[in-house]
C-alpha cells in the first residue's frame, strides 16, 4: 500500500508539497500538481479527505475491532483501550464485526486507506500474508485472541495453561464427563482454550465425548438454550466449561428454573469473571482475565509503533482461576 512519502519520492517533491497539493494550496504550480497527480495514479494512492482533515487539525484516530460490544468483556476491554489512548492524545472508534469476516476485511481496508492510523483486533480471522505482515510491523495489534498464525505477536493470557488448570480443577472435584462450548461456528486449530481443555483430559487419561461439544453459544439466551440441549441428551455431562460468564449465567439460571441443583446435578464454570459471576446463586467458578492490563498493553504497543518508539510485547499475562460454589 503506497504512502504519501512514496508519492513525494516518485514525484520528486517534498511530503509537504504533496500535502499542499491535496489540500488545493495556491502555492503549488500546475506543473507540479500534474506531476504529483501522475505519481498518485501510478502508485494507486487515493487519499481520504476525512482523514486528511482530521490530521490537518492534529487529530489522531485508531480503531478497535470487536465481535459484539454488548459482550461485557469487550465493553471493559474497550474502556481500558480508550482510557490509555486518550491519555496519549488519540481518539478511538469501535468497530463491530458481528462475527462477519467481510466486516473485518472492511475495517482492515480502512487502515489501508489511511482512514485510521492503526488497529487493535480482539479476535482476528482474516488470514492473509498482507494482514499478517501488518501485524508483524505493528500496524495491527492483536489483543485477547487470534484465530490465525500462532507466531504473531499478541497481548493475551496463556489460555492453554489456565484452561488446563481449570479443567483439572473439575476432574479433581470428581467430575469426569465435561462439556465444552464454543462461541463461534468453527473450532480453529489455534483455539488454545480447547487445547488446554484437551491437555487436561490427556493428563487424566480421560476421553472427551464429542456429543458434549457445543458451538455458536455466546449469549445469556443461548446459554439458556444450551441447557435444553444438554438436558435432552441420553447421556448427560456432569460439568460444563462455558466460554463466557454470560453463557454460564444463562445455563445456571435456566437449570435452576427447571429444578436442577448446581453443582450437585451439574457443575458449571465460566470465563472472564464479569460482575454477573459473583451475583449468581450459586456464585460462579470462573477464570479471571486481567482486562485492564490487556487493554493498556495493547494500546501502548500500537501507539509506540505510531510514535516510532521501542516497545517490547509482554509475556502472556497472568490469569487466575476463581473457585466459587458452582463447582
TrEMBL record:
Q: Record's InterPro entries?
A: HTH_LacI, Lambda_DNA-bd_dom_sf, Peripla_BP/Lac1_sug-bd_dom, Peripla_BP_I
Short name of one Pfam family for this protein? Peripla_BP_1
Limits of the HTH lacI-type domain:
2-56
**Protein name per UniProt:** Transcriptional regulator
- Position of the signal peptide: none
Q: Which organism is it from?
A: Streptococcus cuniculi
**Keywords annotated in UniProt:** DNA-binding, Transcription, Transcription regulation
GO MF, one annotated term? DNA-binding transcription factor activity
Amino acid at each position: 500500500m503506497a504512502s504519501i512519502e512514496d508519492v513525494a519520492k516518485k514525484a520528486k517533491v517534498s511530503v509537504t508539497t504533496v500535502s499542499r497539493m491535496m489540500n488545493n494550496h495556491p502555492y503549488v504550480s500546475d506543473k507540479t500538481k500534474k506531476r504529483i497527480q501522475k505519481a498518485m495514479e501510478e502508485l494507486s494512492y487515493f487519499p481520504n479527505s476525512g482523514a486528511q482533515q482530521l490530521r490537518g487539525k492534529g487529530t489522531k484516530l485508531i480503531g478497535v475491532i470487536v465481535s459484539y460490544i454488548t459482550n461485557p468483556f469487550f465493553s471493559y476491554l474497550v474502556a481500558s483501550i480508550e482510557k490509555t489512548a486518550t491519555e496519549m492524545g488519540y481518539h478511538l472508534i469501535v468497530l463491530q464485526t458481528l462475527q462477519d469476516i467481510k466486516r473485518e476485511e472492511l475495517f482492515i481496508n480502512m487502515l489501508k486507506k489511511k482512514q485510521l492510523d492503526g488497529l487493535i483486533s480482539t479476535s482476528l480471522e482474516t488470514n492473509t500474508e498482507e494482514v499478517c505482515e501488518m501485524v508483524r510491523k505493528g500496524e495491527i495489534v492483536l489483543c485477547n485472541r487470534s484465530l490465525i498464525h500462532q507466531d504473531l505477536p499478541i497481548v493475551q493470557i496463556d489460555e492453554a495453561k489456565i484452561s488446563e488448570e481449570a479443567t483439572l480443577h473439575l476432574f479433581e472435584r470428581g467430575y469426569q464427563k465435561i462439556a465444552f462450548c464454543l462461541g463461534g461456528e468453527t473450532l480453529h486449530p489455534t483455539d488454545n482454550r480447547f487445547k488446554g481443555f484437551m491437555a487436561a483430559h490427556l493428563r487424566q487419561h480421560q476421553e472427551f465425548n464429542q456429543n458434549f461439544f457445543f458451538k455458536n453459544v455466546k449469549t445469556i439466551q443461548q446459554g439458556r438454550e444450551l441447557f435444553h440441549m444438554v438436558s435432552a441428551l441420553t447421556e448427560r455431562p456432569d460439568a460444563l466449561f462455558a466460554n463466557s460468564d454470560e453463557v454460564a449465567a444463562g445455563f445456571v439460571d435456566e437449570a435452576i428454573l427447571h429444578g436442577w441443583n448446581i453443582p450437585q446435578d451439574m457443575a458449571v464454570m465460566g470465563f472472564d469473571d464479569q460482575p454477573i459471576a459473583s451475583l449468581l446463586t450459586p456464585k460462579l467458578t470462573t477464570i479471571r482475565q486481567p482486562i485492564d492490563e490487556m487493554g493498556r498493553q495493547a494500546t501502548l504497543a500500537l501507539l509506540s509503533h505510531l510514535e516510532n518508539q521501542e516497545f517490547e510485547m509482554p509475556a502472556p499475562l497472568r490469569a487466575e482461576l476463581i473457585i466459587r460454589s458452582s463447582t
